[in-house]
User: Fold these one by one.
Assistant:
Number 1:
Amino acid sequence: MDVDIWAWVGDTQRQLHEAGNTGLAMAIGDVPAQALEGRYAQLDVLAPAIAQQAENLRLPWVEFYARYWHLIGRVGDRAQGTVAIADAEALVEFTKREDVRECPAVPGAVVALAVAQANADGPGYAAERLAALSALDVEPDSLAFAAVAEHYVAALVDAGRVDEAIAHAETAVAALGGAGREASWELGAASARALLAAGRTEDALTALDAATGFKPDDPVAKEHREGVLRALVLATLDRVQESVDALPDLDVVGDHPRVWVEWSHAIRALAGTAQITNTWQLGRVLKQWIDYFAMMGGYRARVELALVAGHLAVARQGLWQARLLADLAESASGELRNPGDVAERIAELRAAADKATALPAPGSEAELVGVFDAADGFNADPERWVGWLAPLSGRDVEATRRHTTTLGFLGYPARGADIYWTMLVESGDIENADPQDVAYLSGLLIEARQDERLEQVAERLPAAQRHLALGRLYTARERWEQAAAEGEAAATAGGGIEAARLWSAAVQQLGDNAKGAGILRDLLDSEEIEQQDVWRMVVMATAAEDWETVRLGAAKIGMPLKSSEGPIEEEMGLVRIILPAPDGSQRQVLSVRTGPATARLALPQPPGMEYNAGDLVVFEPQLLEPIPESPEEQENFVPPFAAVSMLRPGGYTSWFFDGAAPSQADWTEFNDVMAERGWPMWVYSDDNYTVTHPTSGEPLPGVFGWIAVPPDVSPVELDALLDDATERWVHPLAWLDLAKAVDVEVERHERITKEYGL
């Protein structure tokens, strides 16, 4: 985006503030950070909402801005392909409107479309990308120039024109220098990739070294992206230890689909060395990535990963997996617009699998199930067991159960479902099958997203199993009304505790906590019910304020309560309640536990939150962190729990204070005054916060925070108390928002704010 657009953002925010659209003004300032920092849950909600509001307010540039950053959040780090192309094309069309085309950020839409197309099938869309990018009239003095050049270089590489790509990158860097500007890190990386594709690996490393100090367009991603590319280049040069040192760990790259293919190629190059272990866990992760790109329409990435994963499987003698991956690559290649040499590479993988020798089984066929059950579940290699059990699977029920569930665990549920389908459905004996096998088959079909096959199977099952199978399906697909109906039907047909769990969970999702709790309460004396069922009942009953059922659950669990009727309001110690924040993050709020699943928030929260001190919330009584082992850590441990819902708001209002920190004695007295009245106060500033002395200009220790007052305390009363409590302080405290609300000494608070630089 051009620098002018950022000046426009600032001006637009100011205008929106002045017009009373403060929420929109704040939101547009945060959207780019959401896209670049990976706060996608918030971005996917907020950006469309901004775009809709901007459309309603007839602010087309704001609408474009929101849609653009939402698209970047999808096609950038998340590497969405065909699922994003239509939206990208629509955004390009939007830029052709008379009231949008002059926006300096318009080239960004064309770049975003090129990225989506590259994510789907880089070589297949190379010609379209080159045509669209070359049509942009972007000069070197524009901040869009480097991004356009970067993606033009990438498109040339995908088109097989690597020499032109190298030349274009060099020309673009020179043009930027001539305009007094430096290339972006991303343009430097594109140049390095072009050199690598040309076989000029040493030059690629030199280019990458030269780009290291360049300013990145995406600063959050630079470190791991540079590490992956450097590792690949070094591995190609056979500089193994340096490559391993540069390669980001799996737990780093696992959240960044954009680098998965490059990382996997680096791993393949290093897998034969002692520094990198080629394990079944790696194979499982790669299969998850392959499935991700199937959902996102990343067809080229899916094929590339399947081939890499297949060769890694051959290297560790997982030959069954290599053959399945070759089949997957062949199927996925049908989606490519330009398959190139994919068919030859698939044939190469098949030949490697056929040439390799499988590991011998650890026993005879008659012994295998017993050996499997006796194996160390922590150290056993499930990938090898799939190969060993395969000859028995489909013939021996016990072997089939173990084989197919292990297939599903490793990411191949469709293959497991096929085996069960042949054994149970095509044999015509599904009506008499063991319910355990029906459950296994249902789970595999659901995981493989073969809904029609599951519905077909369900029609042939006895009533309880039929409704359970459909209930599992609808629960997995979050079709709650249908899930509730099937759960109820399964319970009526004798489906037992599983039916009750399914039914109660579905009605809870539909908002009927009382009914959900009642379903489990009816089974409270059953031998089938487990403690987690009782806790689930307690949570739902608490949300419904059915205190009798909560007490029954507490008694079943063995949690003593002091009261015998009415709402449960006891002090059970401090807890940390985890709540959502508007920016998509989470906040930990110190609270007092008042019941088995309730807590009252103890800390004031800034305005804009949906909760505040004094609110009573329902929480899920499952610890989010393990209890520390050492007695010293246990003594200071405050258990964290996830909030479920608001039970009753306390009606508290928060007011901000800010200023120079008083003496310790004055601060202690101030805290005592607030505590005497029961008004929660919390300091949000840290020891590094300073304000400016109004005469000397020297920094002073500062303090800011919030005070929350209950609904029966007026703002006037709080203002008077603050005035009285701080009048003898050396430096005054400011509470400007409160002063404006009560219209008392507003000018004094404005002066304090200005003089102390608050």
Note: The chain has a mean pLDDT of 92.
Number 2:
Amino acid sequence: MPSSSGPSRLTSLHSRPPLRYAVYFLSLLGLAASVLAMLFESAWGWAALPFGLLAALGTYDRYQRRHTVSRNYPILAHFRYFLESIGPEIRQYFIQSDTEQTPYSREQRSLVYQRAKNVLDKKAFGSVQDMYAEGYEWISPSLKPTRIDSHDFRITIGKDCAKPYSASIFNISAMSFGSLSANAITALNAGAKRGRFYHDTGEGAISPYHRQGGDLVWEIGSGYFGCRNEDGTFSEERFVEGATLEQVKMIEIKLSQGAKPGHGGILPAAKVTPEIATTRGVPVGKDVISPYSHSAFTTPLEMMGFIGRLRELSGGKPVGIKLTIGHPWEWFGLVKAMLETSQRPDFIIVDGGEGGTGAAPLEFINRLGMPLTEALLLVHNTLVGAGLRDKIHIGAAGKIVSAFDIARTIALGADWCNAARGYMFALGCIQAMTCHTDRCPSGVATQDKRRGKKLDVPDKTQRVFHFHDNTLKALAEMLAAAGLKDTSELGPEHILRRVSKTEIRSFASLFPFLEPDELLHSVPEHAVFREYWQAAQPDTFHPPVSIQELRATKLR
């Protein structure tokens, strides 16, 4: 446990001139020394010139508002920009291709940067993709393209609620204040307001920086931040205060997160500033530990009751859940609880195992949680087979940045998509992968105010808006080329995958799909349903007896 002096030590460190300003300070010192030397020998003017140019550049970097990295790294940032400018050539000849995704390829990041800056996002000469490689995917074009006049694709969530919500089909996924900087949250919400799409708060509660007028989806995790009692349990009174805000359009109960399912997470004491403590409803300067599971419910049936209660307390706003698929019997138990009680979420967010995070153990990031494709198919198929798909909408998140990513995900069964890292790129994230160190060079994922305040809110607000707008414009063009008029028309038959050098299959033939109400009358041959559907129970998350028996022996 960090000592009580943690925050003071952090403050002391932040009060000293940062090392990253060293080159700038040396240039100022060199300029002053050169000018002083000129009083005795005019030849020193040749030294004053380069020092003066560097000092002028550093001063400009510190006070310009366009580039956050330059403000945090005066003069030094230009070395990065130079190396970045020749990066494609270096990779082309020596290192890697532009399509290598680690975790996002240069091609993907460049696409976001160009669309966010509202500059030309077209490419010349041809694709750099290997179209004959196994796994290559594409959408089928039509010989009779359509015309789409509006790219503002929307879907109404919670049609049976007193306050349904018309959502964009591309929104900002959950990222908390505390994980992202104040300026980053402000720019995201202001961009969402301009583009009329929603901004998920993350489980860190609704901060003052979320209150820029953009639509909010309030995510409630196991820590009940923003709606908790002193002992960490759920507070109905505090929930009502937040849920009835006009800006809050939907409530999302976070069961698990793609990059770290089953991991509660810790916000270190040094990061728990008075501002964050007030926002989350926790003590200042103490570790904030999110429990591994919710205390407001312990069974699927209890969860359905909790969902209904939140809908009532919020005044009839849509209430949903977010989860990463793990044990199939647990998911099936949730669906059976919906059938038994006739209570159900208005929406489900499927978070793929490839999702991002500010910090998580490597094993969680790499090896825990079902990837989005399989998870989305399982959720969609189960709801179709249980006769619930027309009553529950599905959102999906997991490395979605392009129009094709959106089209592919909707074709697999989603109604809309969310993105986190894509919008971070729009804010200026350079994929430094230092989110957990509090040293984010772009001022996005940090609580160091000296770094975060360099992120220019008006400029990044425009970038967030343009990324959303230009991505949906590209989606409209892609749909029109495929002969479609709306995202609701997308289906698995529209996406093709190369499964070998000589074989191509559509998603419709590649993946099994259940018939409506099939689970109500029979058990499909699909292995997961055959093994676990009948054994799943609505009154417990415990594994079936057969699984418990396997856990008790190595004699399999």
Note: DSSP finds 22 helices and 15 strands in the chain.
Number 3:
Amino acid sequence: MNDTILERFHYDNKIVKYFGAATIIWGLIGMLVGVLAATQLFLPEANLGNPYTTFGRIRPLHTNAVIFAFVGNAIFAGVYYSMPRLLKTPMWNETLSWFHFWGWQLIIVAAAITLPLGLTTSKEYAELEWPIDIAIAIVWVAFGANMIGTLIKRRERHMYVAIWFYLASFVTVAVLHIFNSFELPVNFWKSYSAYAGVQDALVQWWYGHNAVAFFLTTPFLGLMYYFLPKAANRPVYSYKLSIVHFWSLIFIYMWAGPHHLLYTALPEWAQVLGTAFSVMLIAPSWGGMVNGLLTLRGAWDRVREEPVLKFMVVAITAYGMATFEGPMLSLKNVNAIAHYTDWIVAHVHIGGLGWNGFLTFGMLYWMWPRLFNTSIYSKKLANTHFWIGTLGILFYALPMYVAAFTQFLMLREFDEMGRLAYGNFLQTVVELVPMYMLRAFGGLLYLSGAVMMMYNMYKTAQKGVFQKYEEDQAPALTKSYNATGEFWHRAWERKPIFFTVLSTIAIAIGGAIEIIPTILIKSNVPTISSVKPYTPLELEGRDLYIANGCVGCHSQMIRPFRFETERYGEYSKAGEFVYDRPFLWGSKRTGPDLHRIGGKYPDSWHYFHMEDPRSMSPGSLMPPYPWMTTNLMDYSDLPAKIRTLQKLGVPYPEGYDQQAMQELDEQANQIAENLKESGVEVLPHTEIVALIAYLQRLGTDIKTSASN
């Protein structure tokens, strides 16, 4: 006779429904902004003639909306659905669940308001200013506390593999976000990074690469390990492979960030470490892909019929492609071709559109009908979504690969006289326009598929009846348990706190070994005595440059290749960036590098170029910024900026905050006078004057051997 007493409990489907709906809504918004940004690259008029919708400002809006709003809400929907069911208990605290939901949506709204206004740190995937950073940390910790509380009150003895990935994602994102967000506020919407130049670049790409790893990859691997077996009605192929996959992935990933900075001013040893560990990543990444695809053994006949499985198969395949391509891109000879070209854009979108997007679609198509106790409204429409989305990915990615090789081959070509065959960077841009058109068409197809899904989900909800609470029962977890002869990893799975601590140690090692020496050992960043802090006007111009997202198209890092030094001038040195908070090395060149632009053209050239780029560079795809010639700068916070930078170690003299405005006026008046001599009347305190001051400073601190 079995005396086991079953305890009754319920799962909260309402929080899952809200996160799922937010996923769909924010996904459509993020994709729409992406299509607009893609259109602007061949039709500058799509910038809509105001500062808030220019490419430089909506590009980070697009990336934040897709990563943190679309993908983020998808992660939370999947976790709040799967975790209670895997642990046989409701989430620990319903109030925390709703605090998490509304807090995250408010953060997204804050991002949608501040980024178009130019309130940005300019750090890739971490553009939001310090008050929002603090809010992110608080909401994220609430999410983690809810997860760990649920683990402690579980009725299931062992943690399933999906939960390993959820835990590691929580811990690592918290560590990454907090350390990369160290900044000193100037005022409520302005701060300066605690790191400068080379150190800032290393910390940022330690964060940036691992944000991709632990926000876009590991949580989705957890979702894959739950939803794929459910959809296929098959167990995970290999438990032991999942163990190797998990621990090797979270340990190795944290070392790989420096591969984003190959051939730059980053110390060579850090570049080598980044490359070595990036290549190693192929093994655990493909271990996960193989484990996913082989889970479908015996169910491949159903892939033909079931749109959920179609989406998941393509998602896992895209994951495999992206995680093969990533290590290949970290090889220095391949990186020399790909970096600063559209290859990187294609690579990111294979992962984003294929892996994250399609797994999200598959998860929603499986989960949504179950929330409403019905079947999907239209399987035919879901299949149509699949094929349109797949075509969208192909139309997006393939032209970007063509664009990348076109740009690289043109930029590096020399004629028989030993001169650059295409000396004008604009010659390469014009050739890429057809590819940019195809890319925008691909994005439009992908967006159209997502609209179909929204309609299908809406009709599915109408067709069924929502189950707010789903009843279940399970025996309580008994404390007496005979663990004799238990597999070692099974023992770890019974100890969630111990498991979390081990995961934290695994992810901390790589970052600590790379970052701490770069910050503490001064020889990693040799100083240059001629490099001085920015003048007040140059500092304000730099902040304006950052606010307008110019780094989204223009790098400030000349690599030691002949075709780059011939085109731009002397290659960049680590010591030139010691006062750059944040660094502005860029990741994509839609326009030429600007690190040696200072003194190359007269002030009037910059004035006319910003007012109407095509007047100085016929065929340019850069949007005009005519408002800069009339908008007045607000210098009221200049003393606070100087004091903040002094606290961060910038050697402005004592009391400089009181005399900075006088020095700014002198330099602004001089630039206004230069422009007047060229027939341009402009007020000294306009935005264009500050921007010209900054551009004319770039690269002038050291003697160079520029050929142009």
Note: The chain has a mean pLDDT of 94.
Number 4:
Amino acid sequence: MSKAAPIPSRQQILDWLNDNPDQTAKRDIARAFGVKGQAKIELKRILREMEAEGLIEKRRRQFRDPSTLPPVTVLRMLREDSQGDQWAEPAEWTGEGPAPVVLYVRREGDPALAQGDRVLGRLTPVEDESYGYVARLIRKIGTASHRIVGIFRKTAEGGRIMPIDKGAESEWQVPAAVTEGAKDGELVEAEQTGPRGRMGLPRARVLEVLGDPSAPKAVSLIAIHQHGIPDDFPDEVVAEADAAEPAPLGDREDLRKLPFVTIDPADARDRDDAVLVERDDDPKNENGFLIWVAIADVAHYVTPGSALDREARKRGNSTYFPDRVVPMLPDRLSGDLCSLHENVDRAVLAVRMKIDEHGRKLSHRFTRGMIRSVGSLEYGQVQSARDGNPDEKTEAMVEEIIDPIYEAYEALKRARALRQPLELDLPERQIVIGDDGHVTSIQFKTRLDAHKLIEEFMVLANVAAAEELEKLRRPLLYRVHEEPSLEKIEALREVAQASGFTLAKGQVLQTAHLNNLLSQSEGSEFDELINISTLRSMTQAYYAPTNYGHFGLALRSYAHFTSPIRRYSDLIVHRALILGHGWGKDGLSQWDIDNLEETAQQISDTERRSMAAERDTTDRYLAAYLSDRVGSEFTGRISGVQKFGAFVKLDETGADGLIPIREIGREFFHFDREAQELVGSETGMTITIGQRVRVRLAEAVPITGGLMLELLEVEGQGMPSGNGKRRKGRRPGTRPPRKPARDAAKKKAIARKVKRTRKK
């Protein structure tokens, strides 16, 4: 009879688990040490003690060293680094110290994985590397987990996160082990780790503590994290930018004797375009002009496949907030080497365009050159000089530089009038931030001719770039804006008819038809309504390697060429021009060409992401600015109607607030989706887009950007009660209730009658 093997010591068990990570079940340990019969009970006791002390971890009847990962592990994917390597981390980690770093190795046929995706991976330990394991995909088990930014509230179980999104459904529950030390009231970024748990709330873990939500300039930080906008450059990207040197003249065309100037906002963070206009001395082009547009040669510094290139493509574009910018490129490039500062040699891609006196482009020529701007000017400064009030800097520039620019603009205006691009008139607001990070004022930007002429020059250059690449038969990314759908145009036509205007029907829609509608409404009480409704009928512009035209600009071919510092699309167009003209080895690569469709989708998505982040930030700043005016009354216009209430755009600030349905009278309101109306069941009162209203600010929540309003008057009429009687003492300052104005009611009745006739 053989003698039973002795029970192994704790150290022997740990050594075995480390040496045999794929044999960690209790039966594997017993077999390895020859433990049989009643001795297994003692072994089981030892394993339980080691588990309780944290020396080993039990997983599905198996034990392992908690400082190591099992051979098959659930991983959460991290983002690629500047070298193109993709990393991962264990979805759960309870060991001491930071979680092991895992390098993910993609094999042919494996799906592309995004940051946050969850996979089941097979791990192989590695030694003498900065990472601990190499992972290969077994299968993908989940897409990127949902992330939120919110306020952390400490609880006995750990904490809860109060989302700052206006549309968030619920709070999130955070176990104590994954709060990352967040304190009560702090702003945190978290990700979902599980479905709704015992408390009825989805589970989450804190990823990063962002600090005090009321701190100055925290508003844009919230948007950056909320929308996942990368705001830190990897070390490799910064090192590559810092190592860059000014581009030499080399084979470039020397344009340094030409008096280029840059014209930008007073607070411009980068200067990527310079202009110059010469009167054409060709007798065949009497009263014509030569317009030069020179654009920073970003392609010289951001070459295909480099760390800078991969990061720029991932970001897609710069994102602009009232208090900061999240740039596409590091400051060494965006604010220095690629910025066309005055009296400094700068590498450019330039186009010289010949136009006639009617603004028609007769020809163009592209070149890779070197310029030296003679002046960094501001829009207001240039306009004042043109209007006869030059300052010390512009006085010597008026006759030879500024006047020709305006003369060429007058010619381009004539061509624009014939082309008839969409002429929307929607004022742009500007949030002014003080040194303390708080809003000091809300202003509406003034549109000067100086702004418009630069826009016209840039449009002309963008058209020339698209046409040049089509002639060279080189791939490119077009800026596409497709015509609106028939359904949206029909909805716009109904709004126009209800307002007493007409929109042409029964022919191919052109921007000229929409401009005619906008012209009809100009100066009327429905001016803003028609402009907003027209804008909402438009499709969203995007990037594509296929040309579908640009409806809004009324152009057949259009590409983005003029802002490569802040848009990756323009960098692709620059590379295509370099390749087409043979200007160097830094042109469009084969990888760029093969992945053009994917790049178009990527940068279209990042553009929408930035727009959403910028819009959310504006809403929050406006809510903060108005938060000390709760109870005040404002005038505005109904800008949207939904079944849960009506949106109002306030005249004073342009802020959008919500009147909840429960606050619109003491009666039931029916939502007519087709007509975009709320109709009172007892009084017949109608709430619809475009109506003038007076409201009281009931609530302003800076952390979400939400404004809640109380409706006081519609088109000058006080609010009726649900039984048709006057409200007494409920809304101070309201007028006695009376029926809606007859002309407005008549227009709405006609509109509804037209709809019923169409349906029949």
Note: The longest strand covers residues 361-372.
